[in-house]
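Figure 3 (text version): structure tokens given as input.
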């Protein structure tokens, strides 16, 4: 009986966030060759509040439906489902894992900055040594984006409590994987459809500014909204599994136990 009740509660939460992700994706602003939307933010909040499966299914299905409603071709909504499911699942799983393992958020962010700087250095070297290679510029751009995200995060370390450091690291990983995955999936699909290599790179690069701005909006939104939403819904969320690892401090917000 308890398992059936829990499954029903999970279905209700998933259905709610599917609808929110659908609407959030349609609420958008054109930006360059693409658009900036709220779908990613709501997908992340679903994974953070309700766990990886709710986050993955909500983002994948809700944003797929938004693509269908917008009249995009099947290649677009299939890519959307894979990427948004992965993003929602990753944020829900990774945030919980790091909290449970009592990992230090400061070390994670510094490690991310070091790794991303090495990737940036490698991408820059490859581009300078082989400027004619079609892979050089995209690799340089993507590595510089990841490095920029982690560098900015390190600059704000002193203003974040331990739990928010873990939250920020999880957000950077989930959104970084989404941006990189979207870039290369779009490129690969275009190649399979017979588009030339150079044109496929250009198409993928043209979508990158909107993806980056959407990611920035999503990171800031999640940092601002997650804890107030968790505070407001914890009592009424029967699937809440974060309570043993978080405590509420009235002056500072949420901290780790």
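Below: residues designed for each position.
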């Amino acid at each position: 009986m308890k398992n059936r009740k829990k499954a029903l509660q999970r279905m209700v939460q998933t259905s709610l966030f599917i609808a929110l992700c659908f609407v959030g994706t349609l609420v958008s602003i054109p930006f360059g060759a693409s658009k900036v939307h709220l779908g990613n933010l709501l997908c992340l909040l679903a994974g953070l509040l309700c766990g990886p499966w709710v986050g993955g299914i909500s983002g994948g299905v809700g944003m797929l439906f938004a693509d269908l409603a917008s009249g995009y071709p099947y290649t677009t909504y299939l890519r959307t489902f894979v990427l948004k499911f992965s993003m929602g699942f990753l944020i829900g799983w990774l945030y919980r894992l790091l909290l449970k393992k009592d990992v230090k958020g400061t070390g994670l962010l510094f490690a991310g900055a070091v790794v991303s700087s090495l990737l940036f250095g490698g991408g820059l070297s490859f581009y300078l040594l082989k400027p004619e290679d079609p892979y050089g510029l995209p690799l340089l751009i993507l590595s510089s984006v990841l490095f920029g995200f982690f560098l900015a995060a390190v600059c704000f370390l002193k203003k974040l409590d331990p739990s928010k450091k873990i939250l920020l690291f999880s957000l950077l990983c989930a959104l970084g994987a989404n941006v990189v995955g979207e870039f290369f999936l779009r490129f690969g699909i275009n190649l399979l459809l017979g588009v030339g290599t150079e044109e496929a790179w250009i198409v993928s690069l043209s979508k990158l500014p909107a993806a980056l701005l959407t990611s920035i909006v999503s990171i800031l939104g999640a940092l601002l909204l997650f804890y107030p939403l968790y505070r407001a819904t914890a009592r009424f969320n029967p699937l809440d599994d974060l309570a043993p690892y978080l405590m509420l401090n009235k002056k500072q917000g949420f901290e780790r136990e």
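Strands lie at 28-31, 34-37, 246-249, 253-256.
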